[in-house]
Design the sequence.
C-alpha cells in the first residue's frame, strides 16, 4: 500500500468516527439528551492518535470519547458513568479536578512500571479554575509524568468560571510544552496529538494541548455552525486531494446510519 | 524478644513491604526523612511530594488502579482534610461505580492527634462507606497491620495517633501480619466492658489496672477496626459483663462512641444492668484533650454501682 492510500484510509476512519459521534448525538437529542455538535474533531483526532493500551481519562464529553475508544453505542444510552477497564477508559469523575489528579496517578504507575504508555486526560476549560489542575500540572512537571493534557476551550463554561486567558499559558508556566490547536480541524488535532504523544513516549514528560472548539447552541447559531463544522471540512479536504468520492462517502454514512438505526430499534 | 518503639515498628513494617513486593512504594510529604529509607530504596519508591495532600492521595489512588501498591502518608491528618474528597469520591467508590471493574488497593497512613482537630479523624473517616479504617494501638499491630492492609484489594486507612509513636515495648524476633477485621480482648474481666481504640487503648488499660486494684475486673476490648465495626466481639463481651463503657478519641456527638452505644442498645438492651457510659475527648482552650484514666475509672464505677 502506498503512502497516499494509507493516508486516505486513515482519514476515512477519522471521518467515520466523526460521523458516528454526530449521529449518536442526534439520537441522544431525540431521546431528550443534550448534544454538543462541534466536539467530533477533538474526540476523534486525539483518541485516534493514541494506542489501545494508553489509558484515557475523560472528564467531559464522555460519550463521544467512549464511542471512539470502542465502547458499544447501546452501553452509552443509559447516561451513567462510563468505565471500561478492558479498553482502559476511565470516565465519570465528578469534578474535573478530582479526575485530573486521578489521571496523574495512572501516569505515575506507568512511569514506575517503566512502560512506554501515555495517560491521556480530556477535560474542558471549566476545569482550569480547579485548584487541582494546578497541583496536577505541578506534580506532572516535577515528576515528568507521561501525561497528555487535552483541554477543550469552547468558551462555554459559566461566566463566573470562564477563563479569560490562554489556557496553554497555565501549563507553560509549569514548564510543560503546550500548544493551542484548532479543535475543529481533525487533521490539525491529529498532527498536534501525534507530535505530543511521540515526545511523551520518548521520555520528554507531560504535554498540554489547548483545543479551540465551537459549541453551537440554539437555532440562531446553526448557520455559523455550518461554517466551522469539522465533518464537511474534512470531506472537502479529502475530495480536493481525491481521497474520497461521493459514492464512498455515501456508503460510509449509510454504514453509520445502520449502526445507529439498530440502536433505535433496540 | 527485642525492645523497640511503636514508630520503629511501623517503619520496620514499611521496609519489609518494600522488600517483599516491588509494586509497593511510599509517597507523602518528607517521607524520605520520616521513613529513613531513601538511601536503601531510592527516590522512585520513597517519593517526597509537595504539600498538596489532595493531589498526592489522588495520585496514590490512580497508581493503585494502575497496578501499584502505594502507601500514602498524610503526616498531619487535620491538615489532610482536603483529601476527604479524593477518599470519598474516588478511593471508596471506584469499585462500586465501575461495576466491580476497578479496585483501589491503596493504604493511607494518617497520623492524627498533632493538632487541634485531630482527635476526631478516625471517627470522621469511619463514616465513609467503601473504606476500611483501622487503628493500630499496640506495637504488634503497628508492625503487623500494614502487610495485611496491603493485601486488601480495597482501600485501607491506617490511623495512627501521634501520642502512640513513642510507646516502648517488646516485639518477638519473628513478627507476623495481624488482623485488620476483628476487635480483640486485650484484658479479660467479667464485671464491666471497656471499649477503647488507638490512643484511648493505653488510657483504658491503665484504668482497668486501677479498677482491678479496687476489685472490679474489666474486660478491655480494642476495636482495631473502626469501619466496619466488629459488633460481634463487643456484644460477646457485653453479654458476659452486662455493663459497657466506651472510651472515644473524639468528642461527644455523632462519633464512634455514639455508634457503638446505639448498636449495643439496639441488640443487647435487655442484657444491660446499667446505662451505657461514654468517656470522650474534651474541648479545651487550645484544642481537645484525650480522656484521662481517672474519667474511665469513674464511669466504670458508676456502671457497676
Sequence:
Amino acid at each position: 500500500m502506498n503512502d497516499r492510500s494509507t493516508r486516505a484510509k486513515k482519514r476515512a476512519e477519522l471521518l467515520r468516527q466523526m460521523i458516528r459521534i454526530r449521529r449518536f448525538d442526534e439520537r441522544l437529542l431525540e431521546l431528550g439528551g443534550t448534544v454538543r455538535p462541534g466536539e467530533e474533531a477533538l474526540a476523534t483526532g486525539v483518541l485516534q492518535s493514541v494506542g489501545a493500551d494508553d489509558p484515557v481519562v475523560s472528564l467531559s464529553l464522555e460519550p463521544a470519547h467512549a464511542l471512539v475508544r470502542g465502547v458499544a453505542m447501546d452501553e452509552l444510552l443509559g447516561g451513567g458513568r462510563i468505565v471500561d477497564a478492558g479498553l482502559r477508559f476511565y470516565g465519570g469523575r465528578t469534578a474535573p479536578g478530582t479526575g485530573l489528579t486521578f489521571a496523574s496517578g495512572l501516569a505515575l504507575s506507568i512511569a514506575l512500571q517503566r512502560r512506554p504508555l501515555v495517560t491521556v486526560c480530556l477535560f474542558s476549560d471549566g476545569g482550569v479554575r480547579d485548584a487541582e489542575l494546578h497541583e496536577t500540572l505541578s506534580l506532572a512537571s516535577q515528576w515528568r509524568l507521561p501525561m497528555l493534557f487535552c483541554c477543550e476551550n469552547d468558551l462555554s463554561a459559566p461566566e463566573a468560571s470562564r477563563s479569560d486567558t490562554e489556557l496553554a499559558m497555565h501549563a507553560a508556566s509549569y514548564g510543560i510544552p503546550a500548544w493551542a490547536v484548532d479543535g475543529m480541524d481533525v487533521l490539525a488535532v491529529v498532527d498536534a496529538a501525534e507530535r505530543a504523544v511521540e515526545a511523551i513516549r520518548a521520555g520528554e514528560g507531560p504535554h498540554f494541548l489547548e483545543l479551540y472548539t465551537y459549541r453551537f447552541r440554539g437555532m440562531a447559531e446553526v448557520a455559523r455552525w455550518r461554517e466551522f463544522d469539522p465533518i464537511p471540512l474534512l470531506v472537502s479536504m479529502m475530495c480536493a486531494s481525491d481521497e474520497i468520492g461521493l459514492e464512498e462517502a455515501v456508503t460510509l454514512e449509510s454504514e453509520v446510519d445502520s449502526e445507529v438505526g439498530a440502536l433505535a430499534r433496540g | 524478644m527485642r525492645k523497640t518503639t511503636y514508630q520503629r515498628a511501623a517503619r520496620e513494617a514499611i521496609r519489609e513491604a518494600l522488600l517483599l513486593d516491588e509494586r509497593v512504594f511510599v509517597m507523602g510529604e518528607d517521607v524520605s526523612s520520616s521513613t529513613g529509607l531513601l538511601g536503601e530504596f531510592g527516590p522512585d519508591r520513597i517519593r517526597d511530594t509537595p504539600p498538596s495532600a489532595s493531589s498526592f492521595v489522588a495520585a496514590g489512588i490512580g497508581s493503585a488502579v494502575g497496578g501499584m501498591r502505594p502507601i500514602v502518608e498524610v503526616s498531619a491528618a487535620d491538615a489532610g482534610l482536603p483529601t476527604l474528597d479524593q477518599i470519598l469520591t474516588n478511593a471508596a467508590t471506584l469499585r462500586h461505580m465501575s461495576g466491580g471493574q476497578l479496585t483501589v488497593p491503596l493504604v493511607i497512613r494518617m497520623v492524627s492527634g498533632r493538632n487541634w482537630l485531630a482527635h476526631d479523624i478516625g471517627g470522621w473517616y469511619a463514616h465513609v462507606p467503601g473504606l476500611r479504617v483501622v487503628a493500630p494501638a499496640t506495637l504488634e499491630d503497628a508492625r503487623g497491620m500494614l502487610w495485611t492492609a496491603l493485601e486488601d484489594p480495597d482501600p485501607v486507612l491506617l490511623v495512627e495517633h501521634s501520642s502512640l509513636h513513642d510507646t516502648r515495648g517488646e516485639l518477638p524476633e519473628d513478627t507476623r501480619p495481624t488482623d485488620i477485621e476483628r476487635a480483640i480482648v486485650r484484658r479479660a474481666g467479667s464485671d464491666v466492658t471497656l471499649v477503647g481504640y488507638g490512643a484511648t487503648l493505653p488510657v483504658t488499660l491503665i484504668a482497668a489496672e486501677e479498677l482491678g486494684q479496687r476489685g472490679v475486673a474489666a474486660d478491655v476490648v480494642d476495636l482495631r477496626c473502626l469501619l466496619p465495626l466488629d459488633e460481634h466481639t463487643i456484644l460477646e463481651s457485653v453479654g458476659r459483663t452486662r455493663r459497657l463503657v466506651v472510651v472515644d478519641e473524639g468528642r461527644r456527638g455523632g462519633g464512634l462512641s455514639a455508634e457503638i452505644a446505639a448498636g449495643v442498645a439496639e441488640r443487647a438492651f435487655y442484657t444491660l444492668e446499667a446505662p451505657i457510659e461514654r468517656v470522650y475527648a474534651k474541648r479545651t482552650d487550645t484544642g481537645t484533650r484525650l480522656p484521662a484514666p481517672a474519667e474511665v475509672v469513674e464511669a466504670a464505677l458508676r456502671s457497676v454501682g
Strands of chain A lie at 56-58, 83-84, 89-91, 119-124, 147-153, 178-182, 207-212.
